[in-house]
Structure of Cytochrome bd-I ubiquinol oxidase subunit 2 apoprotein:
Amino acid sequence: MEMFDLTIIWAGIIGFGLMMYVLMDGFDLGLGILYPFAPDEDARDVMMNSVAPVWDGNETWLVLAGAGLLGAFPLVYSVFLPALYIGVFLMLAGLIFRGVAFEFRFKSRRNRRWWNRAFCWGSGVAAFAQGAVVGAYIQGFHVENFAFAGGAFDWLTPFSVLTGFGLMAGYALLGATWLILKSEGHIQEWAYRITPLLLALVLGVFGIISIWTPFVNPVVWERWFGHLQLIWVFPALALLSAFMVYRSVKRRDEGIPFVATIGIYVFTYLGLIVSKWPIIVPPNYTLWDAASAPESQLFLLIGVLFVIPIILTYTAWTYWVFRGKVRVGEGYH
């Protein structure tokens, strides 16, 4: 009998990588979604400058999670990519447009408005595609003999469209609370004003998704209502985090709104994991069904155990170096 279950370890590593990506890339995608509504061009400068030093490093976690899935759970790739080709393409296209806009907006004067639009639309499309992919995962795929047997647009349903817009709203909330932390003056006041509105939108959309989810996936229905479990602790903690966001904004706190918004994401994410566990390829393939050979998992694990501390170290160092407020006229050029 093995002392450690490598499949569980890898599930934890990939789950951690995905959560880090959602949190760390989520706020800069959220700023892009909020871009058209900014009060002026100075505010847009501050919004972009607040994430310019860190946005590309944030996406390291997406690469780590994707590479880990390919190596540790090859069945996920063989099913998810054919099922989600279009959604994944839209996400990558959005991230590319957003990344190009980062570099060219500061250099261009005559065409700056077009790079503003590229930043906005790239962020919005990437966020929507990520949310739609999550919705498709919740509702499941048509799988036969360990292969996807559905159509190219099976992922695009009313439920996945709702989850796509829901994640856009959630990222916008994360971006607004990040801006509270990093800005000052009229820009910070604008962020304070829009945060309660975004919080109400997020709670409304996520409430509809929560009611709808058990009806699109019988496994979730059984997990939620089959018998009493501690699963309801997670939505309760998410609602508590939402209340902390609202209260801290009213008190004009600067750091707590962002931390509490992270809490909403973490507890919602944990609730989703518990609702589906141990299913990794819906409707019924478990982690162990999708896992690669133990020898492959162990070989990859040795490398990852070196890589993750390095990523955490340089990420923490970057955020420490660029801590503090971003002011008008200062920042990345």
Remarks:
- The first helix runs from residue 6 to 34.
- Strands lie at 143-144, 147-148, 279-281, 285-286.
- The mean pLDDT is 84.
